[in-house]
Design a protein that fits this description.
Thrombin, subunit H; four-stranded antiparallel beta sheet
Length: 385
């Protein structure tokens, strides 16, 4: 890889799509590789300048893909669509249209492609930060036409949070349950559900931050199953499960359960759902838990053997949980019982701040470190028996 990226590799058929920076000439790129061989099929430059701080870079958002197009979004606001052959279809700047992002750190929410719309979430401060953003900046959700990039609707998403707590690095998530489809948004000290067709807010619950602490930016994305949506409060606070079938402004009677923060909390990784349960990687506690989604009961917890920070979200497949730490050490845990199967060093000496989640497709694992992209599994791409 020409440079580091927190972008998760996205696989569609025999194509793999990833965004990246090029460290040598300080440019942004969209790359498509052959899934079977790793050969680069096309590499398109998408912008100049790669970062605004030392914690991350503009290529952190992951691309999304449908049968015809691949969409690449960057922390500087650039949004580009290509066909699978690498031809640019459209290109626009969200920041030129709506103003610079007002964030303490580099914006990194990934887009959501759901049915016939491309969704973007911008939850930011209402005042400039380090010279970025503007007075009175609004937080909002965008829905775009994937074919043209045209805005279909823009829904304001105000909140009562203060300072950095207004900022979210989460990604919109779809959820369908009991005949209702909604887009889940987490950040600004609250959790909301929205109508995918109009953006209208269906319900709102908050807050995990009643004292209005000013530095509680929100990183994990919301995730739901069994009628409950998880909101992971930051900085070592609990994980809340909120009932997903309600309407309007909700009070704490909407809380189905909340975790014991001494055991389970997630400041950065987004939990996973597998075989009907939540899998929560508690980065601060350095443990992994399997949790009943209806009651919050912990089925098991296992200590994670990692001395370096854990910010990449866990991936669950084939009865195993996969995740990677800042140094590129991949941990493989059993999804069935509290057991660490193995820890494998995939990073290069000196690697740091690796945040990419591990992708799974065709019986293969795709692991992105700062300098390399690995495909692990059978060469044919057929899952082992």
């Amino acid at each position: 890889m020409p440079g580091p990226s927190a972008s998760t590799p996205i696989i569609h058929g025999d194509h793999l799509f990833t965004s990246t920076v090029n460290e040598s000439d300080k440019t942004l790129h969209a790359i498509c590789l052959d899934r079977k061989t790793g050969k680069i099929i096309w590499d398109n430059k998408t912008g100049d300048g790669i970062r605004r701080d030392d914690m991350s870079n503009f290529s952190a958002p992951s691309p999304v893909v449908d049968d015809q197009r691949a969409f690449f979004f960057y922390g500087n606001g650039t949004l580009v669509a290509f066909d699978h052959a690498g031809k640019e279809l459209w290109n626009q700047s969200i920041t030129k249209e709506y103003g610079d992002f007002a964030f303490q750190w580099t914006f990194s929410s990934s887009p959501l492609l759901f049915k016939d719309k491309l969704y973007l979430e911008i939850l930011q401060r209402d005042v400039p930060v380090h010279g970025k953003g503007k007075q009175g900046a609004e937080s909002f959700i965008l829905a775009l036409d994937p074919a043209t990039g045209k805005t279909l609707w823009r829904q304001l998403r105000p909140n009562d949070a203060v300072a950095e707590s207004k900022e979210a690095y989460s990604t919109p998530m779809p959820y369908e349950d009991k005949g209702r489809t909604q887009i889940l948004i987490s950040g600004g000290d609250c959790l909301t559900g929205h109508d995918p067709e109009t953006g209208k807010e269906l319900w709102r619950w908050g807050t995990w931050n009643p004292e209005k602490i000013g530095h509680w930016r929100l990183v994990p994305s919301p995730i739901a199953t069994a009628g409950n949506v998880l909101a992971c409060a930051p900085k070592g606070d609990p994980v809340y499960a909120i009932k997903a079938d309600l309407t309007g402004k909700l009070d704490d009677s909407a809380i189905a359960w909340k975790s014991d923060k001494r055991v389970i909390s997630s400041d950065v990784p987004t939990p996973a759902v597998y075989e009907g349960d939540f899998f929560i990687l508690s980065d601060g506690k350095r443990n992994l838990s399997r949790v009943d989604p209806k009651t919050g009961a912990i089925k098991w917890t296992v200590e994670v053997p990692s001395r370096k920070k854990l910010e990449a979200s866990p991936t669950v497949a084939d009865g195993k949980v996969y995740f990677m730490n800042f140094g590129g050490e991949v941990t493989v845990a059993s999804a069935e019982k509290p057991e660490i199967i193995d820890t494998i060093a995939m990073g290069d000496p000196g690697d740091d701040k690796i945040r990419s989640a591990i992708s799974v497709a065709n019986g293969q694992l795709f692991i992105r470190t700062n300098k390399k992209l690995f495909c692990i599994g059978k060469e044919s791409g057929v899952a082992a028996k």
